[in-house]
């Protein structure tokens, strides 16, 4: 089970550091990232998704929380649920993982983005 969590850890590390190399370590090269942002359906390749990382941690990094809440594994297939809870938005990611040539990789990510209401002044 621990080996299957490595891609999820790399995925979280990518978000902590802004380093796209962790995205490339986490995902299979032909994986897809799909979900709704701003009410619009998006579908990105791994490279399109990796291009969204700028190499720097977010300014509000200390306020961001990340965890993987579910890992369900059957031999060489698994699913995981990752939560990225940020000050202004919460992402819930569902990952499909496969053991490919002896190494676990994320082969698909589908997500939901929930914009949080602005704090009352």
Describe this structure in words.
With 121 residues, this protein is α+β, with helices and mostly antiparallel strands. The chain contains three helices and six strands. Strand 3 and strand 4 form a beta hairpin. Helix 1 (2-17) runs antiparallel to helix 2. 19% of the residues are buried.
List the helices and strands and how they pair.
Elements lengths: L1 H16 L2 H7 E11 L2 E6 H5 L14 E10 L2 E9 L3 E12 L2 E13 L6
Parallel strand pairs: 1-6
Antiparallel strand pairs: 1-2, 3-4, 4-5, 5-6
Helix pairs in contact: 1-2
Entry summary:
The protein is α+β, with helices and mostly antiparallel strands and 121 residues long.
Q: How large, in whole angstroms, is the Cα Rg? A: 14 Å
The arrangement of helices and strands along the chain is HHEEHEEEE
Anisotropy-based shape: globular
In total, the number of strands is 6
Strand proportion? over 45%
Largest sheet: 6 strands, mixed
Q: Helix coverage percent of residues?
A: 10-25%
Strand order in the largest sheet: 2-1-6-5-4-3
Which class best fits the helix and strand makeup? alpha+beta
Rounded mean pLDDT is 95
Tally of separate helices: 3
The separation of the N and C termini measures 46 Å
Q: Low-confidence runs (pLDDT<50, min 5 residues)? A: none
Name the features:
six-stranded mixed β-sheet; about 120 residues; alpha+beta
């Amino acid at each position: 089970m621990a080996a299957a969590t490595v891609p999820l850890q790399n995925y979280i590390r990518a978000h902590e550091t802004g380093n796209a190399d962790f995205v490339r370590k986490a995902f299979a090269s032909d994986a897809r990232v799909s979900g709704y942002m701003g009410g619009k359906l998006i579908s990105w390749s791994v490279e399109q998704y990796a291009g969204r990382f700028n190499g720097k941690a977010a300014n509000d990094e200390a306020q961001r929380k990340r965890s993987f809440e579910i890992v369900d594994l059957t031999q060489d297939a698994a699913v995981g649920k990752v939560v990225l809870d940020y000050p202004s938005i919460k992402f819930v990611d569902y990952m499909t993982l496969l053991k490919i040539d002896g190494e676990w990789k994320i082969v698909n990510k589908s997500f939901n983005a929930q914009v949080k209401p602005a704090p009352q002044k």
